[in-house]
Amino acid sequence: MRRKPDVLWILAILFGLGIVTTGYAQSLWAAKADAPVEITQQQQPQLRR
């Protein structure tokens, strides 16, 4: 008879996967932020009184 995996092990694995996924996503985001970006500012119409 095989023992079921402990709930703590499952939580630890999920937590580790979350950390790895977050690190990977942040590295992709940082690489994308290095690309040249044009920043344009829109002027808001001023209200007349």
Task: Tell me what the structure shows.
By secondary structure, the protein is mostly helical. Helix content is 55%, strand content 0%. The protein is built from one helix and no strands. It has one helix at 7-33. The radius of gyration is 24 Å and the shape is elongated. 0% of the residues are buried. The model has no long low-confidence stretch (mean pLDDT 81).
Overview in brief:
The protein is mostly helical and 49 residues long. Helix content is 55%, strand content 0%.
Give the topology.
Layout: H1 7-33
- N-to-C terminal Cα separation, in Å? 82 Å
Helix content: 55-70%
| Residue windows where pLDDT falls under 50 for at least 5 positions | none
SS strand fraction: under 5%
Counted beta strands: 0
Rounded to an integer, what's the Rg over CA atoms? 24 Å
